DNA sequence: TTGTATGCGTTATCAT
DNA sequence: ATGATAACGCATACAA
């Protein structure tokens, strides 16, 4: 990369300053010289030096995106959506934190070092005080430095007042509605395989669940509630193990909710292994409505979170392309998608019909496997461009 | 970010050069001054200026990863694996090209501009001459610039001789083995829903398929072969449409192969809609062995590609942490994973047993839905840490 | 072992 | 509208 601005200037018989002006385009330049410069750039195959430019201008075209793991569709979809909102001038730096607070802090520092133009932090926050303080401090630092920070799926409280925008997910509402759906179908003993205990997302979803139970007088005391709740990571394995544990504690369960679609799939596997029919013997529901959920057998009842839209909005906020409402907080609504994995419990089977509390959204709760056009209909409306494996290898 | 090297130097009562040496750590410094400098850094909360550092040193700690779409697990898994091989000093820049050659070139230029330390280009190459030339030129340019380039899942021929390493996928072999598996089960009329025609991956998988047919005298002439082959994107929708088209052309099909797991799932949906049993009436197989494949009903027979290992190796090559064999080419072997979606065709049902040509790998071809422990066994061995939705939202 | 001086390639501030 | 020139913050060859 020997060719520099000076080379181009020499070839176009102008000063380096003029070349710079032509390239950045934010300054009036005579059309004739402009053409000469562009020609020289083309002939010399000149490529601007990013670091030098960033140093002189004190800005960079890097946008950081923090995710737990891009291989997880929940985050992959958001990362992808952020990208698609990025112009072709900006570069997205995707960082896998693995859910570890330390790595998140490390990456934040790295991004600080790069003088990133913006940072989008996705996923739930860890609620331990030390971490919360450290994380908030880093965000404040970033903001003070001119980097725009947007929290995506994380409460605004995770950053110092006014230092970041937040696009929050309606986890509590979604959790409440999902459990209301089950209660309205007639379920009374509902197990819950929750996420790690110290995560905001886990807490909010669980709070919604409990609120729905309480509203129908099913909450019980803390002990009773605890008996029907187990914690674990947001993995399929956790769902599998959790379901077995719950079945052991309470054989009379008629429904089990997973903190996640992956967890729900694990629950399904465990139930099938026990010889239980879904939803004949036990109903199962998840959360997030990831693409593969509609494909499972039976198709999974879950809570849809418009991840792409949310991520796109977060990115627009990060780029300053969208105005933020007062307080800088946005709420993304969650919506129950009722599919084939939930139905009325055996005892109340007859006359269930279209139970109240059922959400719209192309869902269906046919007792058995949904085949054919019904399933496809759901699938298409749900997935948009994000079919699993939908790209070109 | 007012605090600079000079500030730290002043506080530690040393020169800026010494501070620089302490921070980069590649130069002897007295322990006492070293401690003083570190203390000053800490007290001032100093963060090095990345662009300035990159400019002065003519290197950067950015590593580019080009993918079609991170939301697609095929790419998400590779992007994630690349990340995990990255030390905490380097930053991965993930770029979604959407499979578009133009965007790929744009991103390559952007990375050139950033003076990226390395670039990993994943996915198949487009085989049109103009694009191939332009892409190869950019790669050559990158290499000349000191950026290490690694092709992952793309033939070495896509880059100028000696300018890049290549970790190639055994698409041809995998395609051949998969079709051999079907032939050995007794299938004679096998449909194929291929990817876009101008992609290397598409061509290689299809060539393997055809080679297997030819080896058993089933290839037929080009016309006959063409009748059983349709092209489309690597999406579920494509599989759905393609299967209907093939069924229309040749109702006597006993098996359909998808270019992809997502395509295969689409094929399954179409067949079910037609009232056909899988694998009772028609067998279905995919490619890649993505996590959700083991979860489908019936569990999908597919070709496993060790994406994580391949991506990790690519990254090590990019970082210069692993020696490359002569020629700079690595081949990643593909392996058939036989599951429940393939079985002997009806006419030959009896005595199928364990057909020859069946690959190992925890697979199974029970005629009906695999439930319980068998399914879980496959699942666990296949997925490792990459369960769908396996992270912490 | 440490300090000094220079250069990296742009952008931005003055002039003209 | 264009040119000269001074930052920008750090790394490194060279001195000491």
UniProtKB/TrEMBL annotation, chains A, B:
Protein name: LacI family DNA-binding transcriptional regulator
Pfam families in the cross-refs: LacI, Peripla_BP_3
Keyword vocabulary terms for this entry: DNA-binding, Transcription, Transcription regulation
InterPro entries assigned: HTH_LacI, LacI/GalR-like_sensor, Lambda_DNA-bd_dom_sf, Peripla_BP_I
Region described as Disordered: spans on this chain: 343-363
UniProt KW Chaperone keyword: no
GTP-binding as UniProt keyword: no
GO molecular function per UniProt: DNA binding
Cross-referenced PANTHER family: LACI-RELATED TRANSCRIPTIONAL REPRESSOR, LACTOSE OPERON REPRESSOR
SUPFAM superfamilies: lambda repressor-like DNA-binding domains, Periplasmic binding protein-like I
Domain HTH lacI-type: 3-57
SMART domains for this protein: HTH_LACI (SM00354)
């Amino acid at each position: 990369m020997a060719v520099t601005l000076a080379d181009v200037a020499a070839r176009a018989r102008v000063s380096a300053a003029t070349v710079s002006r032509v390239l950045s385009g934010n300054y009036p330049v005579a059309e004739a010289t402009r053409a000469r410069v562009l020609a020289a750039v083309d002939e010399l195959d000149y490529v601007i030096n990013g670091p030098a430019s960033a140093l002189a201008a004190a800005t960079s075209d890097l946008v950081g995106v923090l995710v737990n793991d891009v291989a997880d569709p929940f985050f992959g979809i958001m990362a992808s959506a952020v990208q698609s909102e990025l112009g072709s001038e900006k570069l997205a730096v995707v960082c896998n934190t693995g859910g570890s607070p330390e790595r998140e802090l490390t990456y934040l520092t790295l991004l600080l070092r790069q003088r990133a133009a913006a940072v989008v932090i996705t996923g739930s926050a860890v609620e331990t005080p030390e971490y919360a303080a450290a994380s908030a401090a880093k965000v404040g630092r970033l903001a003070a430095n001119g980097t725009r920070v947007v929290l995506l799926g994380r409460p605004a409280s995770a950053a110092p007042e006014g230092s970041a925008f937040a696009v929050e997910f309606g986890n509590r509402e979604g959790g409440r509605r999902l459990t209301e759906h089950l209660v309205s179908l007639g379920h009374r003993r509902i197990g819950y395989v929750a996420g790690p205990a110290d995560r905001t997302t886990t807490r909010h979803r669980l709070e919604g669940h409990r609120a729905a139970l309480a509203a129908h007088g099913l909450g019980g005391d803390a002990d009773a509630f605890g008996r029907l709740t187990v914690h674990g990571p947001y993995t399929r394995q956790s769902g599998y193990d959790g379901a077995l544990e719950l079945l052991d504690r309470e054989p009379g369960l008629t429904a089990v909710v997973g903190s996640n679609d992956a967890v729900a799939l694990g629950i399904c596997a465990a139930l099938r292994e026990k010889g239980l029919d879904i939803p004949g013997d036990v109903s199962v529901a998840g959360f997030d409505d990831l693409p593969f959920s509609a494909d499972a057998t039976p198709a999974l009842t879950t809570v849809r979170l418009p991840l792409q839209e949310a991520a796109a909005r977060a990115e627009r906020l990060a780029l300053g392309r969208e105005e933020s409402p007062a307080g800088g907080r946005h709420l993304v609504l969650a919506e129950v998608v009722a599919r084939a994995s939930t139905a009325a419990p055996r005892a109340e089977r007859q006359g269930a019909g279209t139970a109240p509390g059922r959400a719209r959204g192309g869902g269906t709760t046919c007792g058995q496997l949904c085949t054919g056009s019904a399933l496809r209909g759901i699938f298409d409306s749900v997935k948009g461009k994000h079919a699993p494996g939908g790209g070109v290898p």
